[in-house]
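$ fold --in a.seq
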Amino acid sequence: MFNLIKYRFIFLAVSLLVIVPGVIALFMWGLNVGIDFSGGSSVDLLPNKSFQTTAQVKDILQPLNLKDVQVNFTQNPKIRADRAAWIRLTPQIDNTVLNTIKSNVQKQFPGEQLNFRQDNYGTGSSAFSMVSISGFSKVPDSAKLSQATTGLPKINDKAVTANKPVIGDNNQTQAISLLTSNKFQTNNGDIEKVQQAFYNKGIYVQLIDSSTVGGSVADQTKLYSIFAVAASSLAILLYLWFSFRKVSRPWRYGACAIIAMLHDVLVVVGIFSILGHFFNIQIDALFITALLTVVGFSVHDTIVVFDRIRENMIRRTTETFEQVVNASLVQTLARSLNTSLTVLFTLLALTLFGSNTSIHTFTLTLLIGIASGTYSSIFNASMLLVIWEHGELGFGIFGGKRKEQVALAGRRESRELARSRG
């Protein structure tokens, strides 16, 4: 039988090599947090044309001087630009004109469940209104839309003129998701300024959704996230202590599982600190969800190994504690790898080929965390248990007398457990 325990210090050294760069990065740069933790605004827009790169969008937004702006393209087949229309009207219209346009459009497209949105831009002679219409079941007829803008009521005895309606690109489902540290105020027209920046380049956009997270909410999210990780760690420790209560020093099993779990947390957080600094990847509330999932998965694997150790201590009454642990690891190795690899393959596919970029951080967190959790469950938790049992916590191997005492104690405990089971 292959002796894994023999290489316990090598396995722990590998873990340290992975953790240390991330911890250093964490102290130097911290985490690149999103608006969930820092406060800011999120805006989703539907443009009438496709963009090839996010740099094109950032160039349009550059005059606004947005802080920490992030641009993502999302594919939403339910909201299609080629089934939306934009009508520009001058001067700025009021509700009477808007209601007339709604009525005229519905007459031209009977049975359609349409959504209308009006936004006003500019002041004085340069003022205009933009009416966005979405929800068409198919690409709308431009001629019919033009007919809907004839005979509109005057405003202050001034005729309302409408540009030819603009319809989006065919088969275009691309939406733009903006994240920025700026806290947009609706009453100040901040979101309208973003739309205006696109209109200045001749690009029509429709606001799909927007949200703003204030500083107090962000601080509360940070606090609750830390509390969630701490509470789950304490609950796991207490549960393992209770589950292994018939084994001598049961708290060691819980402590080793928590140390292995913290290893996985540090690996994930450290890697994302590096990714945030060099690739501007931000973490959000989904990151915490993924991190807690990693915690559960890691401890789940560790418990399987520990439970096999407990069973073998009853069956293998003549073997040392180190031999029992090694046998348990070898017996559960294939099961742990098979379970983890099936999950990792799925997460890898989602990370590489998933069309929704908003969940890439989530899937990448799970991918890194579960890979780390698989390693720590096999090569860290049980190794720490043996090191603790041998009194090697200082990573200096004590003499043969100490090892002999441990071996005798392990055999004695195995016999006592066997007798207690009858």
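$ fold --in b.seq
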Amino acid sequence: MYTYIIKRRDFEGRGVSMKLNDVINNIDYELIQGTEDTYIESISYHSKHIEQDSLFVCIKGQRTDGHDYIAQAVMKGASAIIVERKVALEFIPEDLTVIQVDKARSILPSLASQFYQYPSRDFRLVGVTGTNGKTSVSHMISSILQHAGRKVGSIGTLGNKVNEMDIESRRTTPTTPEALDLQDTFSKMKQSSVSDVVMEVSSMGLALDRVNGCDFDIGVFMNLTQDHLDDHGTFDNYKQAKLKLFKSCPFSIINADDEHAHDFIDASIGKYTTFGITNGEADLRAVSITSTASSVSFTLEGENLTEEISVPIPGEFTVYNSLAAIASCLQMGLSIEKIKEALAVVKSPEGRLQTIESDQGFSVMIDYANTPDALENVLSNIRAYTAGKLMVVFGCGGDKDPKKRAKMGQIASRWCDHMILTSDNPRSENPSTIIQDIEEGVLLESSYEVIEDRRKAIERSILLAEQGDIILIAGKGFETDQIIGETVLPFNDVEVVKSRLASSPASS
């Protein structure tokens, strides 16, 4: 039985508070001092967000340790503190509750789910995972559902939204929010009366248990290629993290063309369906694929199902994304007619193969492709309909898996007529060192140049372009800043392109 008191505010101006023992009743802990009967009005794992009567959870991160901020929690009026090691109590008031757990981060999902009363039980929840395609597939599913008249929440790289409106939420991670922020967002979506939520589920979100406590209805697996080894250490660790999603979903949707598909099928605890292009045994198959510079069409085949599908986004990867979205929406009760109708007008998410046409007759495409597999998928598809030269501007992120840099250099030189190697987000690494790593993979006789300044590199590509050419600017997509050392600078590929094109002679 929950005990509530009135909070000072939530996003609607009011809310509820809860007794601490109602929040911690599902975890193992030791009471160090105080009482579990104290009331809490909020939960925080960051000292900046501590409020009067907060429960402060001391989490040890890579750079900071929450235990070092206990004094701030006391000064800001926290009513309870969770620690994972012994701390000095002489500076903590005797009436302030302190409890100890083995791993504070691992119990955060349980605390958050209890505090927000398991909001994901009140809507259909779809989780999309894979090395590539999470954002595009999530966007496509959300677009189809909205077209059918449903109110949809979306969580991922492009932000947290209800339909197309951003909602107020904290973001400390680029894709899958921390467990507390995630449950808070779910709670706001529930109060907005969403019927469905589509969420990108990252490997780190799974590995760090951020999605524990989420009541998934559908899990979608797109693909698995080498990436994030700087986070997971080994490819198997990376795969095992992804597999966790399908051990908690009653229904799974799996790309049968991926070489790891059977691992995901075996991990699935419920029913599943498969999709693919090359695997003739997939439940949903795309055949007779036709791609142009502006669209792709195919015949959808399945049990008692044959439909002609057209999507105004080019590329074979769009076919895979569409198949995943179709399977998801069919499972969620939409008719194939409604799905077809929505796909015929769907738009690319921002920064995903976003195309800007110039007055001089060439095209500039901006895409987030920042892995070898993603870059090859995009370039190989663009190559098929490029009338003139295909150029690419790209770099690789610093403090990330360096093994993929030479691979991306080789891939780009194999598909492109000219390359401009530049900076991405170098972070703490020397940009020139990153570019040198890329150069090691560039094939002999390839045409390329190095311009470390990303703005100048983009401007140079536009200067070189002629009628019929296509420029791909890869790696950052929708991002609005560039991280150089400890400095975060405003930077957006799309805005740089638009500014340069507007100032060119043919635009005046």
